[in-house]
Amino acid sequence: MKKFVIWCIESHAWWKIRQSRNLGFFAVLLALSMVATVMLSTSLNAQIITQRSLVSELRGVWLTNIDSDVLFARDRLKGSLQRLDELNFNTVYPAVWNWGYTLYPSKVAQKVIGRSLDPTPGLQGRDILKEIVDVGHQQGLTVIPWFEFGFMAPADSLLAKNRPQWLTNLNNGKRILKEGIHDRVWLNPFRPEVQQFIQDLIVEIVRNYDIDGIQFDDHFGLPSVLGYDAYTVALYKKEHRGKAPSKNPQDAEWVRWRANKITDFMKRVFKAIKATKKDCIVSVAPNPQRFSYDFFLADWQKWERLGIVEDLVLQIYRDDLNVFVKELEYPEVKLAKSHIPVSIGILSGLKNKSVPIQQIQTQVQKVRDRNFAGVSFFFYETLWNLSKENPQERLSGFQKIFPTATTYPNLLTGWKP
User: Fold this and answer.
1) 209 with 276: CB under 8 angstroms?
2) I want to staple 391 with a disulfide (CB 3.0 to 4.6 A). Which of 48, 134, 181, 384 is the partner?
3) Do β-strands 182-186 and 152-154 pair in parallel, antiparallel, or remain unpaired?
4) Residue 29 belongs to what H/E stretch?
5) Closest by CA position to 307, among listed 279, 271, 272
6) pLDDT digits (tens, 9 = 90+) for 196-224
7) How far apart are CA 206 and CA 112, in angstroms?
8) Which of left, alpha, beta for 150 (phi over 0: left; psi -120 to 50: alpha)?
């Protein structure tokens, strides 16, 4: 068809050069050229439509052991992964580091914590990460383990009890922070032995499992009210000519210094991951930049600019649609979109909070309207189990969101913004 159009154009040009007076033949030739052009345009449009229908889109969901039973039985887990595939999801983020324990058998955890695996009965005698990788890949799912708790741990955990010197504290000397009803403590991300422990856990996962990537979130930072332990204060003084850090945890220099230290560790972890498995995707699922930086010292905007984030899933858990859309429009979000796949984390519900399927569908459409790489839902159990709406109604709603299958947008396989 292309050759025919070219022939028509060239014939037209040649005919003009010869200045023929045979207007009848010229009219026929011109008509043929126009018909061929329309046919070619129709053919190209059909190709474009086909390409758009096959365009990649992240369709993910987080799998966790909090308020969810999906991980605690082998058959249930297998059935859940099969159902996600049937509903045209293509990515799962299973928690692997949670409540001060690993959810996979870990030699690193055994050495440091004294237990190689979370003691929950449903996990004993199993390796759920291997199960998820094996079944997930059979179903065509991308598997990216989620290092959920980062530097955080329960205040009464074995880790906190066995390594009290690893913990940081508030300006008043106290260590415990509340997360909802739970008492939490935080490992000091500035101590070399803490950094080594976290890095060893990460590399252990990357080395021992056929995973597609690994994901961190704000917990890979530190609440900005923390960092007043003796080790960190001494380090700050050493680098500030003896000056102590401000008692105001939001002091700009104190925030910047701690955030930069965490960025340095993130760079080190990125290099360790790539040295272990080059094609392992480094994913981050933070809150919007202002909150992440100011309250968790997690400067993901800087991480992205440094090239140490290859997949960003921005958590925008908002009921107000105007606020939700506003978060999609910030400059740092648009800039990241021009470099890497940026998807949006959407809240599908919580244990005591049901999110209507209509709200979920509307938010997905707003994300698509702005050409983001995709969406991921928090969390699996609230897709259709933990909801005030009928499970079948929820299932039908997700079938409408993802009517056909598509591939995971991977920066390492030629993804383009």
Assistant:
1) no
2) 384
3) antiparallel
4) helix 23-53
5) 271
6) 999 999 999 999 999 999 999 999 999 99
7) 19
8) left
Q: Which amino acid is at 205?
A: I
Give the pLDDT means over successive 10-residue stretches in the chain (417 positions).
Answer: 38 37 39 41 34 73 95 97 98 98 98 97 97 98 98 98 97 96 97 98 98 97 98 98 98 98 98 98 98 98 98 98 98 97 98 96 98 98 96 97 96 87
List strands edge to edge, sheet with 91-94. Answer: 142-143, 91-94, 58-63, 374-378, 342-347, 311-315, 281-285, 213-217
Q: State the span(s) of the chain assigned CATH 3.20.20.80.
A: 61-413
In degrees, rounded to 5, the angle at the alpha carbon of residue 98 between the alpha carbons of residues 58 and 211 is 40
**Tokens found for residue 243:** 């000056």
DSSP 245: P
Residues in the chain: 417
Tokens of 196: 């080594």
Q: Which residues contact 249 (CB under 8 A, 6 or more apart)?
A: 171, 224, 225, 226, 227, 255
Q: Which residues fall within 8 angstroms of residue 245, CB to CB, at 6 or more apart?
A: 227, 228, 232, 233, 236, 251, 254, 257
In whole angstroms, how far apart are CA 368 and each of 104, 207, 363?
35, 35, 9
What would the DSSP string read from start to end of 96-157? -EETTEESS--HHHHHHTS-SS---GGGTT--HHHHHHHHHHHTT-EE--B-TTTTEEETTS
* CB atoms closer than 10 angstroms to residue 43: 12
| Identity of the amino acid at 1 | M
Total-model pTM: 0.87
Q: What is the pLDDT of residues 265-293, one digit of tens each?
A: 999 999 999 999 999 999 999 999 999 99
Does residue 148 contact residue 220 with C-beta atoms inside 8 Å? no
| Domain covering 61-413: architecture | Alpha-Beta Barrel (3.20)
> Residue 381, CB half-sphere, CA atoms under 13 Å: how many?
14
Q: What is the largest CA-CA distance in the chain?
A: 99
**168: nearest Cα among 244, 230, 98:** 230
Among 324, 326, 328, which residue's Cα sits nearest to residue 312? Answer: 328
CA quadruple 85, 87, 90, 93: dihedral sign: negative
